[in-house]
Automatic annotation (TrEMBL):
One of its GO terms (cellular component) is plasma membrane. ATP binds at V124, A125, S126, A127, S128, I129, A130, Q131, V132, K151. This is Probable protein kinase UbiB. Pfam families: ABC1. The chain crosses the membrane at residues 489-508. It comes from Andreprevotia lacus DSM 23236. GO terms for molecular function: ATP binding; protein kinase activity. The keyword Transport does not apply. Residues 87-337 form the ABC1 atypical kinase-like domain. Pathway: Cofactor biosynthesis; ubiquinone biosynthesis [regulation]. PANTHER family: CHAPERONE-ACTIVITY OF BC1 COMPLEX CABC1 -RELATED, PROTEIN ACTIVITY OF BC1 COMPLEX KINASE 7, CHLOROPLASTIC. The lineage of its organism: Bacteria, Pseudomonadati, Pseudomonadota, Betaproteobacteria, Neisseriales.
Protein backbone atom coordinates (compact mmCIF):
# COMPACT_ATOMS: atom_id res chain seq x y z
CA UNK A 1 0.00 0.00 0.00
CA UNK A 2 2.83 2.40 0.89
CA UNK A 3 4.48 1.71 -2.48
CA UNK A 4 1.30 2.67 -4.37
CA UNK A 5 0.98 5.79 -2.25
CA UNK A 6 4.57 6.73 -3.04
CA UNK A 7 3.92 6.22 -6.75
CA UNK A 8 0.90 8.54 -6.56
CA UNK A 9 2.94 11.18 -4.75
CA UNK A 10 5.64 10.94 -7.43
CA UNK A 11 3.01 11.34 -10.13
CA UNK A 12 1.56 14.43 -8.43
CA UNK A 13 5.05 15.90 -7.95
CA UNK A 14 5.76 15.53 -11.64
CA UNK A 15 2.34 16.79 -12.73
CA UNK A 16 2.58 20.02 -10.77
CA UNK A 17 6.30 20.56 -11.26
CA UNK A 18 7.17 20.37 -7.58
CA UNK A 19 10.62 19.04 -8.50
CA UNK A 20 11.51 22.69 -9.24
CA UNK A 21 11.54 23.37 -5.50
CA UNK A 22 14.81 21.40 -5.31
CA UNK A 23 16.37 22.17 -8.69
CA UNK A 24 18.00 25.35 -7.47
CA UNK A 25 19.90 23.60 -4.68
CA UNK A 26 23.59 23.05 -5.36
CA UNK A 27 23.47 19.36 -4.42
CA UNK A 28 20.93 18.56 -7.13
CA UNK A 29 21.69 21.37 -9.57
CA UNK A 30 23.06 18.88 -12.10
CA UNK A 31 19.65 17.26 -12.47
CA UNK A 32 18.06 20.42 -13.95
CA UNK A 33 18.65 19.55 -17.60
CA UNK A 34 17.84 15.87 -17.12
CA UNK A 35 14.50 16.54 -15.46
CA UNK A 36 13.56 19.18 -18.00
CA UNK A 37 14.31 16.73 -20.79
CA UNK A 38 12.27 13.95 -19.16
CA UNK A 39 9.27 16.18 -18.49
CA UNK A 40 9.42 18.35 -21.61
CA UNK A 41 5.66 17.98 -22.10
CA UNK A 42 4.76 19.90 -18.93
CA UNK A 43 3.31 23.39 -19.13
CA UNK A 44 4.02 25.08 -15.80
CA UNK A 45 2.36 28.47 -16.20
CA UNK A 46 0.87 28.78 -12.72
CA UNK A 47 2.88 30.29 -9.82
CA UNK A 48 4.79 27.76 -7.72
CA UNK A 49 2.73 28.44 -4.58
CA UNK A 50 -0.52 27.74 -6.40
CA UNK A 51 0.93 24.54 -7.88
CA UNK A 52 1.97 23.36 -4.42
CA UNK A 53 -1.49 24.05 -3.02
CA UNK A 54 -3.18 22.17 -5.85
CA UNK A 55 -0.77 19.25 -5.42
CA UNK A 56 -1.59 18.95 -1.71
CA UNK A 57 -5.31 19.05 -2.46
CA UNK A 58 -4.76 16.29 -5.06
CA UNK A 59 -2.85 14.15 -2.54
CA UNK A 60 -5.75 14.12 -0.12
CA UNK A 61 -7.04 15.43 3.21
CA UNK A 62 -4.03 14.48 5.34
CA UNK A 63 -1.66 16.43 3.10
CA UNK A 64 -4.16 19.31 3.04
CA UNK A 65 -4.16 19.41 6.84
CA UNK A 66 -0.37 19.27 6.89
CA UNK A 67 -0.25 22.14 4.40
CA UNK A 68 -2.46 24.17 6.72
CA UNK A 69 -0.05 23.57 9.60
CA UNK A 70 2.95 24.24 7.37
CA UNK A 71 1.48 27.57 6.27
CA UNK A 72 2.09 28.86 9.80
CA UNK A 73 5.82 28.08 9.59
CA UNK A 74 6.91 31.12 7.64
CA UNK A 75 10.41 30.44 8.86
CA UNK A 76 10.41 27.42 6.54
CA UNK A 77 8.60 28.97 3.58
CA UNK A 78 8.78 32.03 1.43
CA UNK A 79 5.85 34.42 1.74
CA UNK A 80 4.20 33.57 -1.58
CA UNK A 81 4.06 29.87 -0.68
CA UNK A 82 2.89 30.46 2.89
CA UNK A 83 0.07 32.74 1.69
CA UNK A 84 -1.05 30.19 -0.89
CA UNK A 85 -1.02 27.31 1.60
CA UNK A 86 -3.16 29.39 3.97
CA UNK A 87 -5.92 29.11 1.35
CA UNK A 88 -6.17 25.34 1.74
CA UNK A 89 -9.70 24.28 2.65
CA UNK A 90 -10.29 21.06 4.58
CA UNK A 91 -13.44 20.06 2.69
CA UNK A 92 -13.92 16.51 1.46
CA UNK A 93 -16.96 14.49 0.32
CA UNK A 94 -18.91 12.78 3.12
CA UNK A 95 -18.75 9.03 3.61
CA UNK A 96 -22.01 7.00 3.36
CA UNK A 97 -24.55 7.60 6.12
CA UNK A 98 -25.11 3.88 6.69
CA UNK A 99 -21.43 3.59 7.62
CA UNK A 100 -21.77 6.55 10.01
CA UNK A 101 -24.80 4.90 11.65
CA UNK A 102 -22.90 1.60 11.98
CA UNK A 103 -19.98 3.41 13.66
CA UNK A 104 -22.34 5.15 16.11
CA UNK A 105 -24.20 1.99 17.06
CA UNK A 106 -21.04 -0.09 17.46
CA UNK A 107 -19.21 2.58 19.43
CA UNK A 108 -22.07 3.55 21.76
CA UNK A 109 -23.50 0.03 22.06
CA UNK A 110 -27.14 0.86 21.33
CA UNK A 111 -29.40 1.16 18.27
CA UNK A 112 -29.60 4.62 16.73
CA UNK A 113 -33.31 4.94 17.60
CA UNK A 114 -32.55 4.42 21.29
CA UNK A 115 -29.75 6.96 21.24
CA UNK A 116 -31.47 9.80 19.38
CA UNK A 117 -35.11 10.77 18.96
CA UNK A 118 -34.25 12.27 15.56
CA UNK A 119 -31.17 11.86 13.36
CA UNK A 120 -30.62 13.66 10.06
CA UNK A 121 -29.13 11.24 7.55
CA UNK A 122 -27.54 13.99 5.43
CA UNK A 123 -24.41 15.35 7.15
CA UNK A 124 -24.22 19.10 7.76
CA UNK A 125 -20.42 19.17 7.48
CA UNK A 126 -17.65 16.87 6.30
CA UNK A 127 -13.90 17.12 6.77
CA UNK A 128 -10.81 14.93 6.55
CA UNK A 129 -11.17 13.32 9.98
CA UNK A 130 -14.92 13.20 10.61
CA UNK A 131 -18.35 14.34 9.52
CA UNK A 132 -21.20 15.91 11.49
CA UNK A 133 -24.93 15.06 11.62
CA UNK A 134 -27.68 17.01 13.33
CA UNK A 135 -29.82 15.04 15.81
CA UNK A 136 -32.09 15.37 18.84
CA UNK A 137 -31.87 13.59 22.17
CA UNK A 138 -34.79 11.80 23.78
CA UNK A 139 -36.45 13.76 26.57
CA UNK A 140 -35.20 11.72 29.55
CA UNK A 141 -36.00 14.36 32.14
CA UNK A 142 -32.34 15.15 32.77
CA UNK A 143 -31.23 16.69 29.47
CA UNK A 144 -34.54 17.29 27.74
CA UNK A 145 -35.12 16.94 24.02
CA UNK A 146 -31.92 18.82 23.20
CA UNK A 147 -30.74 19.45 19.65
CA UNK A 148 -27.21 18.11 19.25
CA UNK A 149 -24.38 17.82 16.74
CA UNK A 150 -23.08 14.27 16.33
CA UNK A 151 -19.50 14.05 15.06
CA UNK A 152 -18.53 10.67 13.63
CA UNK A 153 -14.95 9.61 12.94
CA UNK A 154 -14.16 8.41 9.44
CA UNK A 155 -13.75 4.62 9.43
CA UNK A 156 -10.41 3.01 8.54
CA UNK A 157 -8.60 6.33 8.45
CA UNK A 158 -5.72 5.36 10.75
CA UNK A 159 -3.78 3.22 8.20
CA UNK A 160 -3.95 6.04 5.65
CA UNK A 161 -2.69 8.53 8.20
CA UNK A 162 0.17 6.30 9.33
CA UNK A 163 1.27 5.74 5.74
CA UNK A 164 1.23 9.46 4.93
CA UNK A 165 3.03 10.36 8.14
CA UNK A 166 5.79 7.87 7.35
CA UNK A 167 6.34 9.57 3.99
CA UNK A 168 6.31 13.01 5.62
CA UNK A 169 9.05 11.90 8.01
CA UNK A 170 11.19 10.87 5.04
CA UNK A 171 10.61 14.26 3.39
CA UNK A 172 11.47 16.08 6.62
CA UNK A 173 14.74 14.15 6.83
CA UNK A 174 15.60 15.22 3.27
CA UNK A 175 14.93 18.87 4.15
CA UNK A 176 17.29 18.60 7.12
CA UNK A 177 20.06 17.11 4.99
CA UNK A 178 19.66 19.28 1.89
CA UNK A 179 19.19 22.76 3.31
CA UNK A 180 21.60 24.80 5.39
CA UNK A 181 18.84 25.94 7.77
CA UNK A 182 17.35 22.46 7.96
CA UNK A 183 18.48 21.48 11.45
CA UNK A 184 17.70 24.85 13.01
CA UNK A 185 14.21 24.92 11.53
CA UNK A 186 13.44 21.44 12.86
CA UNK A 187 11.24 20.03 10.06
CA UNK A 188 11.17 16.62 11.73
CA UNK A 189 9.87 18.27 14.90
CA UNK A 190 7.17 19.97 12.81
CA UNK A 191 6.08 16.58 11.46
CA UNK A 192 6.21 15.14 14.99
CA UNK A 193 3.96 17.96 16.25
CA UNK A 194 1.59 17.35 13.34
CA UNK A 195 1.66 13.63 14.17
CA UNK A 196 0.68 14.34 17.77
CA UNK A 197 -2.17 16.72 16.94
CA UNK A 198 -3.48 14.45 14.21
CA UNK A 199 -3.58 11.41 16.51
CA UNK A 200 -5.28 13.51 19.17
CA UNK A 201 -7.97 14.35 16.61
CA UNK A 202 -8.52 10.63 16.03
CA UNK A 203 -9.68 10.22 19.64
CA UNK A 204 -12.90 12.19 20.05
CA UNK A 205 -12.73 11.73 23.83
CA UNK A 206 -9.71 14.05 23.75
CA UNK A 207 -11.73 16.61 21.80
CA UNK A 208 -14.56 16.23 24.30
CA UNK A 209 -12.16 16.97 27.16
CA UNK A 210 -10.81 20.01 25.32
CA UNK A 211 -14.33 21.32 24.76
CA UNK A 212 -15.26 20.82 28.41
CA UNK A 213 -12.14 22.65 29.60
CA UNK A 214 -12.69 25.59 27.27
CA UNK A 215 -16.36 25.73 28.30
CA UNK A 216 -15.39 25.90 31.99
CA UNK A 217 -12.85 28.63 31.24
CA UNK A 218 -15.51 30.78 29.55
CA UNK A 219 -18.58 29.85 31.56
CA UNK A 220 -20.90 32.88 31.79
CA UNK A 221 -18.66 34.82 29.40
CA UNK A 222 -20.26 37.67 27.46
CA UNK A 223 -17.78 37.11 24.61
CA UNK A 224 -17.57 33.38 23.84
CA UNK A 225 -19.99 30.43 23.79
CA UNK A 226 -18.72 26.85 23.95
CA UNK A 227 -21.13 23.92 23.45
CA UNK A 228 -21.84 21.42 26.20
CA UNK A 229 -20.54 17.87 25.81
CA UNK A 230 -22.97 14.98 26.36
CA UNK A 231 -20.65 12.26 27.59
CA UNK A 232 -23.30 9.51 27.68
CA UNK A 233 -23.43 9.83 23.90
CA UNK A 234 -19.67 10.22 23.38
CA UNK A 235 -16.84 7.75 22.74
CA UNK A 236 -13.51 7.61 20.94
CA UNK A 237 -15.36 7.52 17.59
CA UNK A 238 -18.47 9.59 18.34
CA UNK A 239 -18.80 13.05 19.90
CA UNK A 240 -22.18 14.52 20.81
CA UNK A 241 -22.24 18.26 21.47
CA UNK A 242 -24.92 20.85 22.12
CA UNK A 243 -26.20 22.22 18.82
CA UNK A 244 -25.24 25.87 18.37
CA UNK A 245 -27.16 28.20 16.05
CA UNK A 246 -25.15 31.02 14.55
CA UNK A 247 -23.82 32.72 11.44
CA UNK A 248 -20.40 31.67 10.08
CA UNK A 249 -17.87 34.41 10.81
CA UNK A 250 -16.93 34.66 7.12
CA UNK A 251 -20.44 35.79 6.07
CA UNK A 252 -19.96 39.48 6.74
CA UNK A 253 -23.08 40.61 4.88
CA UNK A 254 -25.28 38.24 6.89
CA UNK A 255 -23.71 39.46 10.13
CA UNK A 256 -24.46 43.07 9.22
CA UNK A 257 -28.02 42.19 8.23
CA UNK A 258 -28.49 40.47 11.62
CA UNK A 259 -27.44 43.65 13.42
CA UNK A 260 -24.13 42.28 14.70
CA UNK A 261 -21.70 44.95 15.93
CA UNK A 262 -18.61 44.06 13.86
CA UNK A 263 -16.30 46.49 15.63
CA UNK A 264 -17.26 45.07 19.01
CA UNK A 265 -16.89 41.55 17.63
CA UNK A 266 -13.37 42.25 16.36
CA UNK A 267 -12.36 43.65 19.76
CA UNK A 268 -13.81 40.56 21.44
CA UNK A 269 -11.68 38.36 19.18
CA UNK A 270 -8.47 39.99 20.36
CA UNK A 271 -9.51 39.85 24.02
CA UNK A 272 -10.56 36.19 23.77
CA UNK A 273 -7.19 35.32 22.25
CA UNK A 274 -5.19 37.01 25.00
CA UNK A 275 -7.49 35.63 27.72
CA UNK A 276 -6.96 32.07 26.50
CA UNK A 277 -3.21 32.48 26.16
CA UNK A 278 -2.28 34.47 29.26
CA UNK A 279 -5.05 33.78 31.78
CA UNK A 280 -5.59 30.11 31.01
CA UNK A 281 -2.52 28.95 29.07
CA UNK A 282 -5.03 26.85 27.11
CA UNK A 283 -6.25 28.05 23.73
CA UNK A 284 -8.33 26.96 20.75
CA UNK A 285 -5.65 26.52 18.09
CA UNK A 286 -7.81 25.94 15.03
CA UNK A 287 -9.70 29.23 14.79
CA UNK A 288 -10.16 29.33 11.03
CA UNK A 289 -13.49 30.79 9.74
CA UNK A 290 -15.08 27.35 9.36
CA UNK A 291 -14.82 26.76 13.11
CA UNK A 292 -16.14 30.12 14.30
CA UNK A 293 -19.79 31.20 14.29
CA UNK A 294 -21.49 34.28 15.75
CA UNK A 295 -24.57 34.11 17.98
CA UNK A 296 -27.45 36.57 17.80
CA UNK A 297 -26.27 38.24 21.02
CA UNK A 298 -22.90 39.22 19.48
CA UNK A 299 -20.92 36.38 21.08
CA UNK A 300 -18.49 34.11 19.29
CA UNK A 301 -19.31 30.40 19.07
CA UNK A 302 -16.31 28.07 19.09
CA UNK A 303 -16.51 24.72 17.30
CA UNK A 304 -14.12 21.82 16.59
CA UNK A 305 -11.79 21.36 19.56
CA UNK A 306 -9.46 18.73 18.11
CA UNK A 307 -6.44 21.05 18.20
CA UNK A 308 -5.67 23.10 21.30
CA UNK A 309 -2.47 24.69 22.50
CA UNK A 310 -1.04 24.84 26.00
CA UNK A 311 1.63 27.07 27.51
CA UNK A 312 3.68 26.67 30.66
CA UNK A 313 3.88 29.45 33.24
CA UNK A 314 7.40 30.18 32.00
CA UNK A 315 6.18 30.48 28.40
CA UNK A 316 3.33 32.77 29.46
CA UNK A 317 5.64 34.99 31.46
CA UNK A 318 8.17 35.47 28.67
CA UNK A 319 5.44 35.95 26.08
CA UNK A 320 3.75 38.61 28.22
CA UNK A 321 7.05 40.40 28.75
CA UNK A 322 7.72 40.31 25.01
CA UNK A 323 4.24 41.50 24.03
CA UNK A 324 4.17 44.30 26.60
CA UNK A 325 7.67 45.47 25.77
CA UNK A 326 6.73 45.33 22.11
CA UNK A 327 3.61 47.47 22.65
CA UNK A 328 5.75 49.95 24.61
CA UNK A 329 8.38 49.90 21.84
CA UNK A 330 10.93 48.76 24.39
CA UNK A 331 12.96 46.70 21.92
CA UNK A 332 15.87 46.32 24.32
CA UNK A 333 13.57 44.47 26.74
CA UNK A 334 12.32 42.30 23.88
CA UNK A 335 15.93 41.40 23.08
CA UNK A 336 16.92 40.66 26.68
CA UNK A 337 13.75 38.59 27.21
CA UNK A 338 14.71 36.45 24.22
CA UNK A 339 18.17 35.92 25.68
CA UNK A 340 16.86 35.18 29.19
CA UNK A 341 14.34 32.66 27.88
CA UNK A 342 16.98 30.78 25.92
CA UNK A 343 15.25 31.46 22.59
CA UNK A 344 18.55 32.90 21.31
CA UNK A 345 22.11 31.89 22.26
CA UNK A 346 23.29 33.28 25.59
CA UNK A 347 26.26 35.05 23.97
CA UNK A 348 23.99 37.16 21.71
CA UNK A 349 24.62 40.88 22.02
CA UNK A 350 21.35 42.44 23.19
CA UNK A 351 22.07 45.73 21.40
CA UNK A 352 22.44 44.03 18.03
CA UNK A 353 19.26 42.00 18.47
CA UNK A 354 17.46 45.14 19.68
CA UNK A 355 18.42 47.04 16.52
CA UNK A 356 17.26 44.20 14.28
CA UNK A 357 13.88 43.92 16.03
CA UNK A 358 13.39 47.70 15.91
CA UNK A 359 14.00 47.70 12.16
CA UNK A 360 11.26 45.12 11.63
CA UNK A 361 8.64 46.34 14.11
CA UNK A 362 8.85 50.12 14.20
CA UNK A 363 7.16 50.71 10.80
CA UNK A 364 3.92 48.96 11.84
CA UNK A 365 3.04 51.04 14.89
CA UNK A 366 0.22 53.59 14.85
CA UNK A 367 -1.37 51.78 11.92
CA UNK A 368 -4.79 50.10 11.78
CA UNK A 369 -4.87 46.38 11.17
CA UNK A 370 -5.89 46.98 7.53
CA UNK A 371 -2.39 48.37 6.90
CA UNK A 372 -0.51 45.64 8.80
CA UNK A 373 0.42 42.21 7.56
CA UNK A 374 1.51 39.92 10.37
CA UNK A 375 2.64 37.55 7.66
CA UNK A 376 5.11 40.17 6.40
CA UNK A 377 6.23 41.01 9.94
CA UNK A 378 6.73 37.34 10.82
CA UNK A 379 8.70 36.78 7.63
CA UNK A 380 11.04 39.66 8.49
CA UNK A 381 11.38 38.40 12.05
CA UNK A 382 12.25 34.92 10.79
CA UNK A 383 14.88 36.43 8.50
CA UNK A 384 16.28 38.09 11.62
CA UNK A 385 16.06 34.79 13.49
CA UNK A 386 18.34 33.13 10.95
CA UNK A 387 20.96 35.80 11.51
CA UNK A 388 20.87 35.36 15.29
CA UNK A 389 20.41 31.56 15.28
CA UNK A 390 17.05 31.78 17.03
CA UNK A 391 15.81 28.32 17.99
CA UNK A 392 12.28 27.70 16.76
CA UNK A 393 10.05 26.90 19.73
CA UNK A 394 7.68 24.04 18.78
CA UNK A 395 5.25 24.92 21.59
CA UNK A 396 4.77 28.38 20.05
CA UNK A 397 3.98 27.22 16.50
CA UNK A 398 0.27 26.78 17.30
CA UNK A 399 0.24 30.19 18.98
CA UNK A 400 1.64 31.74 15.81
CA UNK A 401 -1.01 29.94 13.74
CA UNK A 402 -3.75 31.24 16.04
CA UNK A 403 -2.41 34.79 15.90
CA UNK A 404 -2.49 34.72 12.10
CA UNK A 405 -6.09 33.48 12.25
CA UNK A 406 -6.95 36.36 14.59
CA UNK A 407 -5.37 38.79 12.13
CA UNK A 408 -7.51 37.39 9.33
CA UNK A 409 -10.70 37.66 11.38
CA UNK A 410 -9.87 41.18 12.51
CA UNK A 411 -9.12 42.27 8.96
CA UNK A 412 -12.53 40.99 7.84
CA UNK A 413 -14.57 42.41 10.71
CA UNK A 414 -12.98 45.79 11.35
CA UNK A 415 -10.07 46.93 9.17
CA UNK A 416 -9.64 49.97 11.43
CA UNK A 417 -9.11 47.89 14.58
CA UNK A 418 -6.19 49.20 16.65
CA UNK A 419 -4.71 45.91 17.77
CA UNK A 420 -2.14 47.54 20.04
CA UNK A 421 -4.57 49.68 22.01
CA UNK A 422 -6.98 46.75 22.37
CA UNK A 423 -4.36 44.32 23.64
CA UNK A 424 -2.10 46.56 25.73
CA UNK A 425 -4.49 47.22 28.69
CA UNK A 426 -5.22 43.49 28.94
CA UNK A 427 -1.52 42.62 29.08
CA UNK A 428 -0.76 45.34 31.62
CA UNK A 429 -3.56 44.05 33.85
CA UNK A 430 -2.34 40.48 33.48
CA UNK A 431 1.26 41.42 34.29
CA UNK A 432 0.13 43.29 37.41
CA UNK A 433 -1.80 40.24 38.54
CA UNK A 434 1.18 37.95 37.91
CA UNK A 435 4.17 39.91 39.16
CA UNK A 436 2.64 42.87 40.99
CA UNK A 437 1.43 42.97 44.60
CA UNK A 438 -1.72 41.03 43.78
CA UNK A 439 0.30 38.29 42.11
CA UNK A 440 2.68 38.14 45.03
CA UNK A 441 -0.20 37.91 47.53
CA UNK A 442 -1.88 35.14 45.48
CA UNK A 443 1.37 33.16 45.33
CA UNK A 444 1.86 33.56 49.08
CA UNK A 445 -1.64 32.21 49.73
CA UNK A 446 -0.90 29.23 47.50
CA UNK A 447 2.32 28.45 49.35
CA UNK A 448 0.99 28.87 52.93
CA UNK A 449 -0.39 25.28 53.21
CA UNK A 450 2.99 23.86 52.24
CA UNK A 451 4.81 26.15 54.64
CA UNK A 452 2.45 25.08 57.44
CA UNK A 453 3.40 21.46 56.77
CA UNK A 454 7.14 22.16 56.63
CA UNK A 455 7.62 24.55 59.57
CA UNK A 456 6.92 21.96 62.35
CA UNK A 457 9.66 19.75 60.89
CA UNK A 458 12.35 22.46 60.97
CA UNK A 459 13.69 21.65 64.51
CA UNK A 460 14.20 18.00 63.53
CA UNK A 461 15.84 19.00 60.24
CA UNK A 462 18.15 21.41 62.11
CA UNK A 463 19.13 18.64 64.53
CA UNK A 464 19.94 16.39 61.59
CA UNK A 465 22.02 19.15 60.01
CA UNK A 466 24.14 19.65 63.13
CA UNK A 467 25.13 15.98 63.01
CA UNK A 468 26.76 16.40 59.55
CA UNK A 469 30.29 17.57 58.79
CA UNK A 470 30.81 21.06 57.30
CA UNK A 471 31.30 19.90 53.70
CA UNK A 472 28.16 17.77 53.71
CA UNK A 473 26.34 20.66 55.37
CA UNK A 474 27.18 23.10 52.62
CA UNK A 475 26.35 20.58 49.90
CA UNK A 476 23.03 19.83 51.59
CA UNK A 477 22.23 23.53 51.78
CA UNK A 478 23.06 24.08 48.12
CA UNK A 479 20.92 21.12 47.06
CA UNK A 480 18.13 22.44 49.24
CA UNK A 481 18.32 25.76 47.43
CA UNK A 482 18.12 24.13 44.04
CA UNK A 483 15.18 21.94 45.04
CA UNK A 484 13.24 24.77 46.65
CA UNK A 485 13.85 27.04 43.68
CA UNK A 486 12.29 24.44 41.45
CA UNK A 487 9.23 24.47 43.68
CA UNK A 488 9.35 28.30 43.84
CA UNK A 489 9.66 28.24 47.60
CA UNK A 490 12.34 30.91 47.44
CA UNK A 491 11.89 32.02 51.05
CA UNK A 492 12.38 28.57 52.55
CA UNK A 493 15.26 27.96 50.17
CA UNK A 494 17.01 31.10 51.36
CA UNK A 495 16.41 30.13 54.98
CA UNK A 496 17.83 26.66 54.34
CA UNK A 497 21.03 28.01 52.82
CA UNK A 498 21.48 30.70 55.48
CA UNK A 499 21.00 28.16 58.25
CA UNK A 500 23.39 25.74 56.56
CA UNK A 501 26.03 28.46 56.17
CA UNK A 502 25.59 29.63 59.78
CA UNK A 503 25.85 26.12 61.17
CA UNK A 504 28.89 25.39 59.04
CA UNK A 505 30.57 28.54 60.32
CA UNK A 506 29.81 27.62 63.92
CA UNK A 507 31.11 24.10 63.35
CA UNK A 508 34.39 25.36 61.86
CA UNK A 509 34.95 27.56 64.85
Amino acid sequence: MRLFRLIKIARVVVRYGLDEFLLGHERVHGLRRLLRALFFWRSLTRPRGERLRLALEDLGPIFVKFGQVLSTRRDLLSLDIADELARLQDQVPPFPTEIAVAVIERSLGRPLAELYAEFELTPVASASIAQVHRARLHDDGAHGARDVAVKVLRPDILPVIESDLALMRVMAGLVERLFADGKRLKPREVVAEFDKYLHDELDLMIEAGNASQLRRNFLNSDQLLVPEVFYDWTSREVLTLEWMDGIPISRIDELRAAGIDLKKLSRFGVEIFFTQVFRDGFFHADMHPGNIFVAADNRYIALDFGIVGTLSERDKQYLAINFLAFFNRDYHRVATAHIESGWVPKDTRAEELEAAIRTVCEPIFDKPISQISFGQVLLRLFETSRRFNVEIQPQLVLLQKTLLNIEGLGRQLDPDLDLWQTAKPFLQRWMNEQIGWRGMWRNLKQEVPQWAALLPTLPRKLAELTAQNPTELLVHGYRGLMWEQKKRNWLLAAIAVLLAGLLATLWLR
